Amino acid sequence: MPEKNYFDSEFTIDFYDLSQYEEALPMTMLRLLQETAGDHHFPVQENIIDLYRKNLGWVLLSGIMQFDRYPKYKEKIIIRTWMSKYKSIRGIRENLIFDENKNIIGRAKGLWLFFDIEKRRPISIPEKFLEGWGKDSDVSIDYNVATKIQALNSGELMDVIKVKKFDIDANKHVNNLRYFQWLIEVIPDKVMKENFLYQIEGNFQHEANYGDQLVIYTKIVEMDKEFLHTVFDMTTNRVCVTARTIWKPR
């Protein structure tokens, strides 16, 4: 892969990044993936905050994250990101996560939409991003980001959430990190104690906003191994997110 077509960010896992199992939280890794995507704007003389001040930003439409293991306390990791495909208003971002010994411990892929925050509609990706980032056909994981996950209207597990102020991000809607947190919260304690989250796939279909009442349905496909999830907005009667989580023994 030509050097100009990928971007590396280095991170150290701190104490507040850890779960009770002394490894990085899955939410930590998702946050660092987002941070890397934001930092990727610097090589094209852009800043994610400058974009926000212009009422511009990126919205995740669908994606997958997969980990063979999660990094430990004070472990240094490198997240490598690049764009593999573009259309006029959207692009596919690839990610590899390396440990200190350059071993791949995680992979992620996302379909991102360029977005006018104020008008709440997609717009064309600026030409300087297309030219500055380039693209490479290498993929981080063999997964079709157009894959749809069927919505549930019930489940063996359920939770109800009211969207609060701090659930809203700079794009003025619930951030995908919050959805992720709510989905994992429903998983039984025994499953989380004996297993780790190997893979999560998700489709983001509609925005949830401050004050909305959400219900989270979870279906047990196979206990300790696979679950299906749906976040339904009772305020707007719309499906916000559909997802699948796959778990492996610790």
Quick tags:
250 residues; Thiol Ester Dehydrase, Chain A; 2 domains; eleven-stranded antiparallel β-sheet; 5 helices
SS elements, strand count: 11
Question: Can you give the helix content as a percent range?
Answer: 10-25%
Radius of gyration: 18 Å
Rounded average pLDDT: 94
Through-space gap between termini: 33 Å
Task: Tell me what the structure shows.
The protein has five helices and eleven strands. The protein has helices at residues 26-39, 48-53, 127-133, 176-186, 189-194; strands at residues 7-12, 56-67, 76-86, 90-98, 104-116, 121-122, 157-162, 195-204, 213-222, 226-233, 238-249. β10 (226-233) and β11 (238-249) form a beta hairpin. It is α+β, with helices and mostly antiparallel strands and 250 residues long. The chain folds into two domains: 3-133, Roll (Thiol Ester Dehydrase, Chain A), CATH 3.10.129.10; 157-249, Hotdog Thioesterase (Thiol Ester Dehydrase, Chain A). Strands 1, 2, 3, 4, 5, 6, 7, 8, 9, 10 and 11 form an eleven-stranded antiparallel sheet that branches. It is globular.
Architecture blueprint of SSEs:
Elements: E1 7-12, H1 26-39, H2 48-53, E2 56-67, E3 76-86, E4 90-98, E5 104-116, E6 121-122, H3 127-133, E7 157-162, H4 176-186, H5 189-194, E8 195-204, E9 213-222, E10 226-233, E11 238-249
Antiparallel strand pairs: 1-3, 2-5, 2-8, 3-4, 4-5, 5-6, 7-9, 8-11, 9-10, 10-11
